[in-house]
């Protein structure tokens, strides 16, 4: 893709500047407002970064204690987080500070990536409006305000689609699309499913519309993806990934406009019709993206126990485009003043949910909970022992205290996840027989444990086990003794 001509440079720089300003206005205030990152899973990723720093690249010694487990989460996000931390640490920022700041980098980049994709085929105006909708949709904000591998994948996916389409004209872009595809594979598994199957769906739609199938392009793209992905593929084949990924249920259709926006959903339907009537190559690509994301968000493949909400986040990007495309199709041959007024009105109304959302978010860990983990770190001897907690709290305990945990982050990707989950549930129900099995020394009871295990606090308090540390009713650390 050639750079824009000098005379059009302002139509390239100004939209990107606007995207950066709006995205930073949503993410950076959260960095300055809270001491902790907003999501639970970033604690797991921060600890994996520490593992990388200590030479553990394929093994996680803290999750699934006391023995640890093979590390099977794709490594690219951790490499990026580690590199960014090394850079920002020169200015005094900690790893936690880096994780808090990272959304202010990733969210603008994913939106700019989308803008570049849409702009190439539909122009600056449609690209900019699409980017605006991405930035204000509640479901894309869910992902945009946190640092995660999926956030990195959402930077790569639009660029992958763009280079694949450009590969019809120049072979070098097709090669680049294969490289980007493998980068998605090294970043986030569910993202790779969406991206690769969207390309496959696009190839099928080309065939069904009696156009040139370009099957050789798809095969070349696939081969490049496989070749570059072999190292991590070997790691997965050696250790396996359990099929019992947490099941998220099936959302009612009425849930979609709540998370994707009522206005954008209403505009997306005619936008899809307009694209079907046009039927150009780029139209089919964007339709394929939406089809795959929607099908998986409905969990029609429920036997795989996938997470439908994650696919709803992927659906936000094509929905944002369908809405923008529809608006400009409706605006054809209309008065310029009326068009501008209508678009500004839609943008203002669409931004209300986003503003309310950002004003209400908060971290999933508070000062009292964190203080319990710090106390454990500062007042206990390390050894081949573990801490019991809910799966949600486990990666936070592991990162802050440094102690091994019974479950750990992304427990569902490991072979004995179900057994460990059942054992932990039994422990919090008063069955202490599994303490020796995992060499449990401490058990933590906080808001998440009380919510997840019901009467866990009553069982713990009714026992003869000593209380080591507590903060009001929000955090309770139990000492198991010798």
Automatic annotation (TrEMBL):
Its EC number is 2.4.99.21. It is a multi-pass membrane protein. One of its GO terms (molecular function) is metal ion binding. It is found in: Cell membrane. Its cofactor is Mn(2+); Mg(2+). Keywords: Glycosyltransferase, Magnesium, Manganese, Membrane, Metal-binding, Transferase, Transmembrane, Transmembrane helix. Pathway: Protein modification; protein glycosylation. Its main location: membrane. InterPro entries: Oligo_trans_STT3. The chain crosses the membrane at residues 12-31, 101-122, 152-168, 188-208, 215-234, 254-277, 284-302, 314-331, 338-355. It catalyses: an archaeal dolichyl phosphooligosaccharide + [protein]-L-asparagine = an archaeal dolichyl phosphate + a glycoprotein with the oligosaccharide chain attached by N-beta-D-glycosyl linkage to a protein L-asparagine. It comes from the Archaea. GO terms for cellular component: plasma membrane. Belongs to the STT3 family. This is dolichyl-phosphooligosaccharide-protein glycotransferase. It comes from Candidatus Methanofastidiosum methylothiophilum.
């Amino acid at each position: 893709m050639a750079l824009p001509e000098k005379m059009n440079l302002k139509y390239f720089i100004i939209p990107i500047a606007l995207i950066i300003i709006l995205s930073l206005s949503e993410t950076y205030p959260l960095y300055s407002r809270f001491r902790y990152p907003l999501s639970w899973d970033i604690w797991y990723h921060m600890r994996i970064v520490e593992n990388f720093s200590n030479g553990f690249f394929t093994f996680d010694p803290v999750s699934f204690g006391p023995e640890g487990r093979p590390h099977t989460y794709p490594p690219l996000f951790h490499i990026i987080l580690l590199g960014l931390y090394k850079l920002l640490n020169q200015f005094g920022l900690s790893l936690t500070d880096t994780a808090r700041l990272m959304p202010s980098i990733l969210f603008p980049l994913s939106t700019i990536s989308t803008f570049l994709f849409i702009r190439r085929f539909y122009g600056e105006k449609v690209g900019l409006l699409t980017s605006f909708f991405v930035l204000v949709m509640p479901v894309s904000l869910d992902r945009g305000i946190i640092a995660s591998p999926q956030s990195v994948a959402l930077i790569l996916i639009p660029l992958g689609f763009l280079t694949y389409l450009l590969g019809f004209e120049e072979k070098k872009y097709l090669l680049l699309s294969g490289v980007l595809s493998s980068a998605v594979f090294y970043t986030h598994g569910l993202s790779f499913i969406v991206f690769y199957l969207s390309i496959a769906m696009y190839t099928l739609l080309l065939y069904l519309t009696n156009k040139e199938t370009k099957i050789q392009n798809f095969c070349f793209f696939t081969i490049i993806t496989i070749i570059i992905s072999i190292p991590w593929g070997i790691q997965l084949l050696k250790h396996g990934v359990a099929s019992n990924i947490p099941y998220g249920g099936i959302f009612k259709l009425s849930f979609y406009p709540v998370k994707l926006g009522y206005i954008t959903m209403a505009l997306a339907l005619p936008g899809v019709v307009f694209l079907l009537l046009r039927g150009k190559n780029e139209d089919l690509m964007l339709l394929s993206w939406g089809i795959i994301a929607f099908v998986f968000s409905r969990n029609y493949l429920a036997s795989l126990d996938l997470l439908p909400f994650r696919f709803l986040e992927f659906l936000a990007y094509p929905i944002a485009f369908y809405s923008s495309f529809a608006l400009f199709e409706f605006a054809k041959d209309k008065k310029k003043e009326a068009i501008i007024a209508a678009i500004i009105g839609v943008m203002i109304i669409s931004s209300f949910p986003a503003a309310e959302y950002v004003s209400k978010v908060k971290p999933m860990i508070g000062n009292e909970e964190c203080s319990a983990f710090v106390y454990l770190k500062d007042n206990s001897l390390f050894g081949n022992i573990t801490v019991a907690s809910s799966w949600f709290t486990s990666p936070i305990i592991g990162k802050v205290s440094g102690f091994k945990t019974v479950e750990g982050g992304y427990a569902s990707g490991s072979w004995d996840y179900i057994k460990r989950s059942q054992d932990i549930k039994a422990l919090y129900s008063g069955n202490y027989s599994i303490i020796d099995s995992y060499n449990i020394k401490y058990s933590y009871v906080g808001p998440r444990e009380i919510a997840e295990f019901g009467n866990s606090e009553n069982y713990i308090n009714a026992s003869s086990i000593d209380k080591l540390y507590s903060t009001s009713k929000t955090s309770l650390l139990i000492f198991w003794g010798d």
